[in-house]
Amino acid sequence: MLRKEQNDLLTQTGPGTPMGQMYRCYWLPALLADELPENECPPVRVKLLSERLLAFRDTDGRYGLIDEFCAHRGVSLWFGRNEESGLRCPYHGWKYDVTGQCIDVPSEPEESGFCRKIKLKSYPLVERGGILWAYMGPPEKQPPLPEWEFAMVPPEHRFVSKRLQECNWLQAMEGGIDSSHVSFLHRGELNKDPLFKGSKGNQYNLADAKPHFEVVESAGGLLVGARRNAENGNYYWRITQWVMPAFTMIPPRADHPVHGHFWIPIDDDNCWTWSFDYRVTKPLSAEQRQAMRDGWGVHVKYVPGTFRPLANKDNDYLMDRAAQKAGKTFSGVEGISMQDASLQESMGPIVDRAKENLVSTDNGIIMARHRLLRAAKALIDKGVTPPGVDPAHQRVRSAALVLPPDQPFKDAAKQALMVQPDVAHVSV
Ligand code: FES
Ligand SMILES: [Fe+2]
User: Fold this and answer.
1) Main-chain phi, psi angles of 231, to 5 degrees
2) What CA–CA distance (Å, rounded) separates 148 from 157?
3) Using CA positions, which residue lies closest to atom 1 of ligand 1?
4) pLDDT value, residue 205
C-alpha cells in the first residue's frame, strides 16, 4: 500500500510535479506517424502530461508539436490553416512555424519585428518506428533517440496501435507487470486467440495457477520472473521486462510475434495504452497483421474514427455473462486488452492505494513503485537522470524458457534478455 502523498506523487504528471518532471526526461510516444500522413495534412490535438498541444506536419515535411492555443487571444490552432510552411490561425491570421515561432502577424508592419517576439511553447517531435516521439523536457537535457527494438526493425516486422484508457497511467502500468493475473483473467484467451494459441508454454501456464515470482532489478527497471512447473522437475520461466517509467515487454509464446506496451499519461485521469508487436527474424504474416487490425492479441477494435475501444465503460465493455458462465472468458469481457482495461478502469480514475492488501505475487508492483519513488527523488534532489533514458537500457528483451531447478533465471537467461541482431527471441 502507499500513503496518500506517495500515491499523489506517483500518479500526478502535470507540469511542475515530481513525476511530471521525471516523465519529461524521456522520449514519449505522442502519436502514430499515420495520424500525420502527408505534408500540410490537418493538425492533430495531442494532450500529454496534462498539456494541451497540437501536432502538425508542414509543407516541407517537418513535424511540430506546439501549444494548442494562439498567442494572440487563445483560439485553438486546431482550426488553423496548414499552408506555406506554417500553421495560420484562422481568427486574425497569425502564423507559426513547427518550432512555435510566430512568423507573420498580418496587422503589424513587418519592419516592427513584432512577430519575432512571439513564440509558442514547442517540443521536438521525431518519427521512428511508425511512432512520432516527443521530448518535453529541458532542451539541454535532451537524450538520444529511443532504441526500443520494435522501433528499430523494418516496418514489415512490426505493428503498433494505441488506445484510450480511461484511468491513471500507474494502475494501467501495474497491470502490465502483474503476471499472476494471466492464469485467471486471460485463461480463456490462451488457447483461442490466434496470436497466442498453440504454444507449449500455454500448457504450463494453465496447469500451474500458483506461479512463484522472483523480481530483480535491471539497469533500466525490473525483470519480473514467473516460475511454473515443467516436466522432470524443471521450471518454465516467463520473464517480463519493465523499463522505467512505463515500458513493458511480455514474454513470447512459441514463435508468435512478441508484444508489449507503454502507458503514457494524457492527464491524471486518462492515459494512452500503446501496444506493439514485432518479430526480429521475419516479417509479420498477412494473417497476423489482419488479426492485429481486427483487435486480437493486445490490440482492440475501436469506436469508428476514434482511438476509444469499441468495448468501453459506457457499454459495460460488452459484458457477456453467458460466456463468463460457460468459461469462454473468465471475466465476461472479450479480448486480452479489454479484459485488462475494463478491470483497471473499474478501480476508478485513480485507485486509492492506501486501501490495498498486497500479497507476495504483487512484488513486481511493489518494487516498481519503490524504484519510481527513488528515481523521482534523485532527479528532484540531485538532478540524477532516471533509469530508462539511456538507450542501452532500452535494448532489452523478454524471454520464455525452461531451466533446470538450480539455475537462477537472471544468470541463465542473461543473453536471452538482451537485444541480439538477427536472432529471434528465446521462447517456448
Ligand atoms: S486569436 Fe489567433 S490570430 Fe487572433
Ligand atoms: Fe493482462
Assistant:
1) -75, 160
2) 14
3) 73
4) 83
The answer to whether the beta carbons of residues 285 and 293 sit under 8 Å apart is no
Q: How many CB atoms lie within 10 A of CB 279?
A: 22
Q: How far apart are CA 322 and CA 327, in angstroms?
A: 9
Distance CA(47)–CA(264), nearest Å, equals: 10
Biggest alpha carbon–alpha carbon distance for the chain: 84
Contact 376, 9 (CB under 8 A): yes
* Rounded Cα–Cα distance for residues 337 and 341 (Å): 6
* C-alpha of residue 180 to centroid of ligand 2, in Å: 9
Determine contact, residues 165/345, Cβ cutoff 8 Å.
yes
Q: How far is CA 321 from the centre of its chain?
A: 30
Q: Report the residue among 68, 69, 92, 107 best suited for mutation to probe ligand 1: largest number of ligand atoms under 8 A from its CB.
A: 92
Mutate to test the pocket of ligand 1, among 91, 103, 114 (most ligand atoms within 8 A of CB): 91
Beta strands in 72-193 (DSSP E): 81-82, 87-88, 95-96, 102-104, 122-123, 125-128, 131-135, 158-165
Q: Which H or E element spans position 296? A: none
Measured CA to CA, the distance from residue 266 to residue 14 in angstroms comes to 9
C-alpha cell at 23: 516523465
DSSP state of 29: E
**Could you give the 3-state DSSP secondary structure of residue 77?**
helix
Owner of C-alpha cell 502527408: 38
pLDDT band at 99 (very low <50, low <70, confident <90, very high): very high
State the pLDDT at residue 118.
Answer: 98
Got the DSSP string for 12-27?
A: --STTSHHHHHHTTSE
pLDDT at 112: 93
pLDDT recorded at residue 188: 83
| Whole-number CA gyration radius for the chain | 23
Which residues approach ligand 1 with their CB closer than 6 A? Answer: 70, 72-73, 75, 89, 91-94
